[in-house]
């Protein structure tokens, strides 16, 4: 199994979390850096652990100061950087002005296209604008922490990857579990988005990569799949999406 989206640098003991993940059967982790400082921390973790890779970009919350594309491109040149992300639009929090978020999102999509790497998308309360911004992007798309059922038809039509996090296990998240049943077997992913969104069985604790196994169990139950087989399928999907070694 793989955790395709973790913020290891936000954990008190990221190295211990990697060890616990391995003990739980999570053999690979993609950790996310969402600012220049975060890129450095993510790459340090990837350098320390053979089974950790990095996703680097400027989060919409951090987009008020724009994006240094030269610095991001240098960070993307690291051999363990596998995607541009998480990038996108967030009209729910508005931590950064909308007029700043959109150009930062577009520039990073252009970089992903130039590099031939997946774009890992954050969208919250911004489905229509996210859809419009992605209209001209022909590269690989991952809808991270999927919580936008209105974007599911676009994902299905355009072959985007759909990644489910711990919120898909919540008792009231029937719409997310229904969405999981509609995602093709070769396009489904799973993640923790730790330290946020701990799955229902461990809700209230700090989330960490080991807990992706709870999300896997909920997805398998919703889809009528064997958990071990779905875990292997998700890992194969992630390897294809992110270009991970076999």
Number of strands: 8
Question: SSE order in H/E notation?
Answer: EHEHEHEHEHEHEHEHH
Described by the principal axes of the CA atoms, the overall outline is globular
Mean pLDDT: 97
Taking all Cα atoms into account, the compactness measure Rg is 16 Å
Give me the secondary-structure category: alpha/beta
CATH topology: TIM Barrel
- Unreliable residue stretches: none
What fraction of residues sit in β-strands?
15-25%
CATH homologous superfamily classification: Metal-dependent hydrolases
Detailed description of the structure:
The chain is an alpha/beta fold and about 250 residues long. Helices cover about 40% and strands about 15% of the residues. It has helices at about 15-25, 35-50, 70-75, 100-115, 125-135, 150-160, 175-180, 210-225, 225-240, and strands at about 1-5, 30-35, 50-55, 80-90, 120-125, 140-145, 160-165, 190. Strands 1-2-3-4-5-6-7-8 form an 8-stranded parallel beta sheet. The longest helix has 18 residues, at about 100-115.
List keywords for this structure.
246 residues, alpha/beta, TIM Barrel, eight-stranded parallel beta sheet
The gist of it:
This protein has helices spanning 14-24, 36-48, 69-76, 98-115, 127-134, 152-158, 174-182, 212-223, 227-242; strands at 2-6, 28-33, 52-56, 81-90, 119-124, 141-143, 161-164, 188-190. It is of the alpha/beta class.
